[in-house]
Amino acid sequence: MGEQWLKTKVECPECSSTNLIHDYSTGEIVCSNCGLVLTEQKMDQGPEWRAFTQEEKESRSRVGIPTSYSVHDKGLSTAIGRVDRDAFGRKLPLATRLQMWRLRKWQIRSRVHSSVDRNLAQAMAELDRLSDKIHIPQALKERAAVIYRKALDKGLVRGRSIAAIAAASLYAACRLTGSSRTLREISNTSLVAKKDVARCYRLLIRELDIQMPIAGPLTYLSKIGEKTNITGQTQGIAVKIIREAMEKRITAGKDPMGLAAAALYIACILNKEKKTQKEIAEAAEVTEVTVRNRYKTLRVQLDLKLPD
Amino acid sequence: MKLEISQSDLVLLQKSFFEEEGLVRQHLDSYNAFIERGLQEVIDETGEIEIGVPENPYKIKFGQIFIHDPVSKISGPYTTEADGTKHEIYPMEARFRSLSYLAPLSLEITPIINGREQETELILIGALPIMLKSKLCFLSQLSPEKLINYGEDPKDPGGYFIINGSERAIVAMEDLAPNSILVDIDTRGAKPVYQSKVFSTTVGFRARIELRIKPDGAIYVSMPGVPTLIPLVILMRALGLESDFEVAKTVSTEKIIQNQLEPSFEAAVGVDTIKSAILYIGNRVAHGQGEEYRLRRAETILDRNFLPHLARIPESRKEKSFFLGEMACRAIELKLGRRKTDDKDHFKNKRLKLAGPLLADLFRVAFRNLCRDIKYQLERMGAKRRRLNISIAVRPGIVGNRLKHALATGNWGLGRVGITQLLDRTNSISALSHLRRVQSPLSRSQPNFEARDLHPTHWGRLCPNETPEGSNCGLVNNLALSAHISVGIDSGGVKQTLYRLGVIPVQDASVTLRESGAKVFVNGSPIGYHESPQEFVAEFREKRRRSEISTEVNLAYFSSDNGHRNDIYLNCNQGRTRRPLIVVKKGVSTLQPEHIEKIRSGEWGWKDLVKRGIIEYLDAEEEENALVAITFKEITSEHTHSEIAPYTILGICASTIPYAEHNQSPRNSYEAAMSKQALGVGATNFLLRVDSRSHILHYPQTPLVKTNSLDIIGYDLRPSGQNCVVAFISYEGYNMEDAVIFNKSSIERGLERSTFYRIYTAESRQYLGGSRDQFVTPEQGIRGYRGEQYYRFLETDGIISLESEVVGGDVLVGRMSPPRFLEEYKEFEIRGPTMRDTSVDVRPAETGIVDAVFITDTSDGNKLAKIRVREQRIPELGDKFASRHGQKGVIGIVIPQENMPFTADGIIPDILINPHAIPSRMTIGQFLESMAGKVAAGRGMPVDGTPFTNEKPEELKRMLTNLGFSHTGREVFYNGITGEKFVAEIFVGVVYYQKLHHMVRDKIHARARGQVQMLTRQPTEGRARGGGLRFGEMERDCLLGYGAAMLLRDRLLEESDKYVLYTCERCGYLSYYDNRQRKYVCRLCEDKAQISPVVVSYAFKLLLQEMMSLCVVPRLTLKESV
What we know:
The complex is a heterodimer. Chain A is mainly α. Helix content of chain A is 53%, strand content 4%.
């Protein structure tokens, strides 16, 4: 078998079929086309040790945490421990202890050397702070970090504020995954004005060639609904209204937040839930006028019969 | 007057105690105290932080802390969704969606610029884990009906946390009492060293102060921060006692004791002034520095590190000198033989650390981190001169994640691990017992014999039976039913009361008072003297019973009449284990029948009795002053108290044992451990719960032989066993060695039948580059594809359909994941053969029926599917059962009813156990339970088997005869197979049997082929991984002994990790396969290489390579095989 282990088997050597079947119970890989057994003893992907308690798990594991883009050095730095004991567990003599202390100090000082590293360290701290403040899931933060790193590689950060690019990356990541965060939310927690963040965001899109999915009103529906305590049932009606509106192509060019707010407002009326335009507008962070205008368009265009 | 309080009245009393207090009161009290006072105290310790911006430094001040979110206006447990919206959650949602049950924490923050206070802002600073059923928990205010509506078990005790969907219980830590002086003799050296020690503990700082009398008679003190020992007299002088007279007087007024100070004075010769004494210390801590600096360092050490519990300011030095004097005095008294060494295992010297103090420790560290971060953020911002916005600088994640992480892992930092554990939900008993567990910090690897022993002061505080066997024996304990943990009150108010009652402060006490009166200690520190201790103590207790003084306070008087020094110890700190007792005055119980009547009518509650001083709580120290009658009958004029009910000295598990006092004690311990493994109804909301595994017993029965505690615990509503007809007979030998024989028809009627639920979880995660897991039926040809038949039950959403009958390997949730290591820049790659199949399948060797499918999403916005698979478990050969007397056994055979032995009346037992199980184990309780069960079944009413206060054996015998049975419990039996009458009469009765969760179904295992390990390429280990059965060293030795060479080769090579190693014959090194040249090459010999294959075990190849990594050169010398 020897070197066979090393190859990633993607096709059957006999019939070139890619329909391989992995049988975990017998440890075999079989071609489902010709029946050839490619491997008799599959390797177990998990650890070979068994641990019943957390403590055992920690002591037996030989790996650390996975690398992460949202840490400035991807978590791959070296640190000198603070144990101050030798391999036998004896205390180090004072001279060695002091030497280790100095080494440790210089290790920390020299860890961040290039300007890129310094920049990243600051940016990642900012990203960390932003996502902590507005509760951004880890995966999204990671995505934002990748966008930021790309921007840095392209030299987009030079001459602009780190905080602004970081906030813009975060917003871009939110938009890319269709998670409903507004630019205002992000810029409010950032030290940078909304205007600057928006400018940087546009720059990122342009320079990094990011294909941004269009944020439809649907993404924001549940968010407004949650804020104003509108029932799921009513939210469902609002979804239907928006779907219909999108089919009739009357949503193009309109602020998705306003549309979502108006649809919710209509749904509330239809479902006899008492919510004022003002409440909904506030939750959506748009003006009442916008809600009223969208409400009118929707009512007329979709030919809705609403009680007054 | 004759007392007319009956046994059932006392049960009523006990019930009212638990109704008001609940079984996990200690955790709830402690946690509630933490959120009411503890949180704010931690904030106030810091108070304000200074922001050192170069141009105009300013400060920010912390105000009050609130459980409130300033943005969403939520003041209770809540969660934040992926889109940033926040809403309140109930515990069931947290369990269900794998969320944490946390409430927002916000703090008033006021910037102070140029001494002027700016506008106060309320800012979210983190999230606090909420203990279920505590004040902040939504459930604490709900009626049982409402609780059911919210998906809870109405009888759930609460007292645990929900972190990431799993229930975590905090285990109480037993700790040596802080701030009190303990003396002992160090006999390690040639001559004994007398020492007194104190763990001086203040918020977040613990200083160990040790005072030792060296063999030459001089006294030295050690404290943290000072590398050497300091002579006592110098330290006293540094604390401000200039003259020798003052020093001697502070230690004692007695000549004999003062004389013992002689060597100590000699050790301090040449240090005569306060300044020189301080300088002496300064020379030790800041050697070689300027004089001013040395003085300053020494003074800070004195104020900060020496006895910090008294205060950490220069003004407290006087007080510290009194404390030090007391320490010295006690050590000398010990040396003179006037006092015995303190008993470290006495429960008066122990404190229990519960959720409150443990969380406070954690919160303190987290809050300090937060402050540091705020300071850093503001200083960075300030440097850039922007408008002041504090809320931007506050990151709520610091506090929230720290608390969450500690609770989730049980890792408290500083090497303290295992503080929280996953709550055991096997049955109601195991959950309750888990919440009342007490852990000792002592190492389990050291013997610590004394610490493991049962101490007389454990009476009524810790259960004598419920402790594990083995390494943790005696170190892990469980609270007794009657135990109650003090929450503590501020000692300042208590001291004021004492001074009002005539206690003279230490500095004002005259020599005569010091010699004739009693010294008064509050929480271990001397605060003054009282001239007539007897009267004082009596008056104090009277006031407490009239509720003029908090019932939290306990005091004890050790009189010189009993050979002690005249001392009064008063305690009001938290963590003392106390127990309620009925107050007896002049030989008469203060509890009268009319009080019981009021309790019965609901007019009074337990609290009213405590308020009126009819019942009072005693800690281990005050109990030293009490003489407690076990029953009312025993009360004499000497007695001061009476027990409420003797069986409350037992813990939760031990009090389920009927007639426990008739068993050999270890058997009760075994049963206490086993009752936690019995299947029952862990929670009545089991159909809504999503624990990864749970067992539910089908027809749980309340035991026929009850104990009073069972009703109190709620065991009759969530039992974990069934009443079985049990005969003591060996039948064809199928029940030898502790096996049991079951009646097949009984099993078919549903006896001890249970359902096993396993919940599988699948989350669709997001990855970098926008890809995410998909719940679909995986496509053919992707990596790890398992073959069509395994996906046959999946619906279009990739999730299995309900009621599918699945076996091991069947896929429950089909899932495709993107390749594992996607590179940074390959973002928008098309999916192809690199997709992986990461479906969730049924565990190998398990079967079942898909019972329920839950689909929801996590707080990160990922889709989350939980699938519940059910399997019926019918008792079969090899399943484990146990009675309530530590008598466990596995089924040896299941016999059809027609072949079972039967009585003259035609009764056929459910279970046959072997009579050999009894003589050596002496579990007489099981006989009594058996007879009592027979009586209960006959008369149609349960029998009371409560330990100590049960229906007595003679009574049972009489009732058996009345019911027409033999008084021995034995009956005539006939052989079910031959029909012959047995020569001997057979003992038969009704015994409560528990099904334990060790079932063959979960253990049976074999392997013919299967996967191998990555590291060694030997077969995997363990049933869950389809592992092999180890052919170990001793087995190998057998084959060697027999000379079975071929079999040996087969086991250890062919069927294990056979590997073909290519090695160079010329140099003996390993060669490698060069893919480009398509042949094996030797690095060293290149063209001259002579490469040969060698069959070795992979482990051997690994060994060679590991040696090479250590710079050892292994060479293989090959020879032709013969």
